[in-house]
């Protein structure tokens, strides 16, 4: 029996308890810093520079999601534009990630589209790329609509999209956009999802992960693999090499603070490696999902808190 989905469901369910959130926010920041670059843009930019010194690029993300007012959405948009402009002053690749619920997706998908358009316009000016993250399954259709509207109808080529291999619908979603040769990031998925919509078996999730990566690469789309599983990374690398796919068409993306040796080894071999680099005050939901991925992550934090 694969216990990983049960563990993830349990941790994410407990993480929603307000008393636990208050406890972790009060005492857990020193552990969250393993996965989060800092509270401020300036701290994040310092980490971007340190990663570049190691041959690793950054995919920078201002943490925050599921805003409840147009004012909040506009404020997040303004801060993300400021992030893009700050990256534009640095001599490195300018890649950022956004969640559409930051931009008002739950209020109005057209509002989120308009805010994303503003961010894309700012990114164009600094030769930047904006990757639209995929959130939980009830928001998949709206997220794909916003991305496709800007990519296909309005011609923005600097906008990428993420698909999750644990969602049963993802192969069909990819087929529907394959003609656009999307800049695609493939991840396994970190949200609590029911068995009706998401595979619960790790073997099936892994199989579909490889299917998505290979399908997009074969169709000519730039593809990023978002996994920390060394064997899966090696399967993608070996397949791409055997198929003669140029290295500039694919890359390996990791979460900041995880699998340092693996990512540094790939960078030394000349592969493009990019760290998903989150920062900001709203770090608790992201941190919770990291704890839910592996029991070892949770044990690390619990041991540290017990030791004071």
TrEMBL record:
<dbReference type="GO" id="GO:0000166">
    <property type="term" value="F:nucleotide binding"/>
</dbReference>
<dbReference type="InterPro" id="IPR029041">
    <property type="entry name" value="FAD-linked_oxidoreductase-like"/>
</dbReference>
<keyword id="KW-0560">Oxidoreductase</keyword>
<keyword id="KW-0642">Proline metabolism</keyword>
<feature type="binding site">
    <location>
        <position position="99"/>
    </location>
    <ligand>
        <name>substrate</name>
    </ligand>
</feature>
<feature type="binding site">
    <location>
        <position position="289"/>
    </location>
    <ligand>
        <name>substrate</name>
    </ligand>
</feature>
<dbReference type="Pfam" id="PF01619">
    <property type="entry name" value="Pro_dh"/>
</dbReference>
<feature type="binding site">
    <location>
        <begin position="188"/>
        <end position="190"/>
    </location>
    <ligand>
        <name>FAD</name>
    </ligand>
</feature>
<feature type="binding site">
    <location>
        <position position="134"/>
    </location>
    <ligand>
        <name>FAD</name>
    </ligand>
</feature>
<dbReference type="GO" id="GO:0004657">
    <property type="term" value="F:proline dehydrogenase activity"/>
</dbReference>
<feature type="binding site">
    <location>
        <position position="290"/>
    </location>
    <ligand>
        <name>substrate</name>
    </ligand>
</feature>
<protein>
    <recommendedName>
        <fullName>proline dehydrogenase</fullName>
        <ecNumber>1.5.5.2</ecNumber>
    </recommendedName>
</protein>
<keyword id="KW-0547">Nucleotide-binding</keyword>
<comment type="pathway">
    <text>Amino-acid degradation; L-proline degradation into L-glutamate; L-glutamate from L-proline: step 1/2.</text>
</comment>
<feature type="binding site">
    <location>
        <position position="164"/>
    </location>
    <ligand>
        <name>FAD</name>
    </ligand>
</feature>
<dbReference type="InterPro" id="IPR015659">
    <property type="entry name" value="Proline_oxidase"/>
</dbReference>
<keyword id="KW-0285">Flavoprotein</keyword>
<dbReference type="InterPro" id="IPR008219">
    <property type="entry name" value="PRODH_bac_arc"/>
</dbReference>
<feature type="binding site">
    <location>
        <begin position="227"/>
        <end position="228"/>
    </location>
    <ligand>
        <name>FAD</name>
    </ligand>
</feature>
<dbReference type="InterPro" id="IPR002872">
    <property type="entry name" value="Proline_DH_dom"/>
</dbReference>
<keyword id="KW-0274">FAD</keyword>
<feature type="domain" description="Proline dehydrogenase">
    <location>
        <begin position="45"/>
        <end position="300"/>
    </location>
</feature>
<dbReference type="GO" id="GO:0010133">
    <property type="term" value="P:L-proline catabolic process to L-glutamate"/>
</dbReference>
